Amino acid sequence: MVGKGKVHNVSGVLLHTRELPAGCLKVSVDIAVEPNAALTYPSDDSDATTVHEAVGSFVAWPTNLICVGYETPTKSKSKENEVSNASAQQKKEVSNASARVKSSGAKKTVARKKPTTKYRSCLRTFLEMTDIPTGGVRIVHMEVGIFGFDYDQMIGNEDFMQVFGHEEIGVNVVNTYIRFLYDKLMRPNDLDESFGFLAPATVNLGLILSRPHTVTEYVLRILMDNKDAEKLFFIPFNTGGHWLLLAINPIREIVYYLDSLGNDWTTYPDMKVLIDT
């Protein structure tokens, strides 16, 4: 066992706009049990070649090397995995199979089933009227004012399912929410003069470990472009199974650390690499 994550729908799923290799499924890596284990299919998009570098991203994984609902040796017996009821049909299809990882040393929050809100009802209605559930995607344009560069981001069915199921959310959902804040809150109130964002897909653990100069150059460019303004920059950061928020005030040389689990920042030693950067 080299890692733990979630298997995503197999029917018509694309991996970074490309078809999956034959005999593989799309897997999001949440925890690295053997960090230095090599990926069978390295990620072209993030340059990840090991399980540790692939944490927080999607990779192609050979079907015969996936064990659905398998218990990793990284947690105690008392902390049972949250696995969906595995009927024979679910095991056969593997779709929506979820093996959620929880660190045995971190504080736990019990997810309560929430009533469906009108917003999620609207999202479900929208989804049912599109081709997204059958493999289609929608484009969200991220303009240059948000992260310092512009690009088109694709939103697929798995991104909606993360929201509907209160599952661990991926970077696409985080970026879409940032786009919403930028359009509805920041720009209309001129708050983009006081607050900014750094792209979580660029300032991430995989790139920090594999291509630190890329991250350094990006952060330096954004800060230098705003060197005359006292601006607070938000960085959503994935520690490998958990999102936390960093906020940097470069003028005052202050870094704010916000963690919904209430952990001390030393819980995530790899994050110090980001702070040093």
Automatic annotation (TrEMBL):
Q: Keyword Protease, does the record have it?
A: yes
The protein's matches in InterPro entries, at most eight in alphabetical order, are given as: DUF8039, Papain-like_cys_pep_sf, Peptidase_C48_C
UniProt keywords, alphabetically: Hydrolase, Protease
Kindly list the biological process annotations in GO that this record carries: proteolysis
Residues in Ubiquitin-like protease family profile domain copies = 231-263
Which part of the chain is the DUF8039 domain?
Answer: 2-67
Q: Which SUPFAM superfamilies match?
A: Cysteine proteinases (SSF54001)
Note the Pfam families from the entry.
DUF8039, Peptidase_C48
Stretches the record annotates as Disordered: 76-113
Question: Per its UniProt entry, which superkingdom is the organism in?
Answer: Eukaryota
Its Gene Ontology molecular function terms?
cysteine-type peptidase activity
Q: What's the family?
A: Belongs to the peptidase C48 family.
In Swiss-Prot or TrEMBL terms, this protein is called Ubiquitin-like protease family profile domain-containing protein
State the organism of origin: Pisum sativum (Garden pea)
Lineage at the top is: Eukaryota, Viridiplantae, Streptophyta, Embryophyta, Tracheophyta
